[in-house]
Write a structure and sequence with these properties.
With 253 residues, the chain is an alpha/beta fold. The chain has seven helices and ten strands. The radius of gyration is 17 Å and the shape is globular. It binds adenine.
Length: 253
């Protein structure tokens, strides 16, 4: 049976997922706790990526090499940087770029050395399912939470996500980051710290990968205040609603 690994960065994001697992068994790999169990008839592994690209790459490798994950989904929070991407919205990744990767002048800025590309695409089939799951979760979650401005219903966006080893928390810093990305031809909707690394590991192993991020902050001067509040109150039910809808869609295929 195919084994789906679901990665989250933080324990708060994972809480609601763990509650859905039947017959959970705790395994240890590379110092990480991995929960194996059944969810809506699927064999599922739940793990924390930890924070940052290297930690996330280790976790993804352990799940694929050590525990036989044959598909990987990341669900977590991100800073919204695209126009109209508000706190509480959902961003489904179409592809990833590492905003802090720069081996110039040997390789063009952002290009992953020896891969001949700067972006890694998500699996189109799983991404289409994740988009549908996010839309259905957004409808279910409408009005239940008031993340900050209280949108009536979270908007679901699809596009490029930029990852880097940096919590982006300042308007000036964000402006510089966006200008550099734009100069390289990249317009990202959100920033986070793990997705591109997991995408690269999955690319190396030929394992389908998809990712969805709930927007916890706008990567601006208020990000450090908005982020913990959102993670505490909202991230877990969002992840649970999205992944429940995703697994239902996966069953009905
Ligand atoms: N994850 C959530 N918010 C973020 C931010 N502002 N920067 C990087 N990663 C994040």
């Amino acid at each position: 049976m195919a084994t789906l690994a679901i990665l989250s960065a933080l324990a708060e994001e994972q809480q609601g997922l763990l509650a859905c697992l039947s017959q959970p068994v705790c395994l240890r790999r590379a110092g990480r706790e991995v929960w194996r169990g059944q969810w809506l008839g699927h064999e599922v592994l739940l793990a924390l990526s930890r924070i940052g690209k290297v930690a996330a790459a280790t976790t993804a490798t352990a799940l694929i090499e050590g525990l036989g994950a044959s598909r990987v989904v990341f669900t977590g929070v991100a800073g919204g940087i695209g126009p109209g991407v508000r706190v509480g919205d959902l961003v489904v990744a179409t592809d990833f770029v590492q905003h802090d990767l720069d081996a110039s002048p040997l390789f063009p800025r952002f290009e992953i050395p020896l891969y001949g590309r700067s972006r890694l695409a998500c699996d189109p089939v799983m991404t289409a399912l994740l988009l549908r799951a996010s839309e259905s979760a957004a409808t279910g979650l409408a009005g239940q939470f008031d993340p900050i401005s209280g949108p009536a219903r979270p908007t679901v966006h699809a596009g490029l996500i930029a990852s880097g080893d940096r919590f982006v928390s300042g308007a000036a810093e964000l402006q510089g980051l966006q200008q550099r990305l734009l100069a390289g031809g990249h317009v990202a909707l959100a920033v986070e710290m793990e997705g591109a690394a997991v995408a690269q590991v999955c690319f190396d192993y030929g394992v389908p990968f998809a990712a969805v991020r709930t927007i916890s902050d706008r990567a601006d001067d208020a990000a450090h205040v908005d982020f913990p509040r959102f993670v505490r109150d909202v991230a877990s039910p969002y992840a649970q609603a999205i992944m429940t809808a995703f697994l239902r869609l996966l069953s009905s295929r």
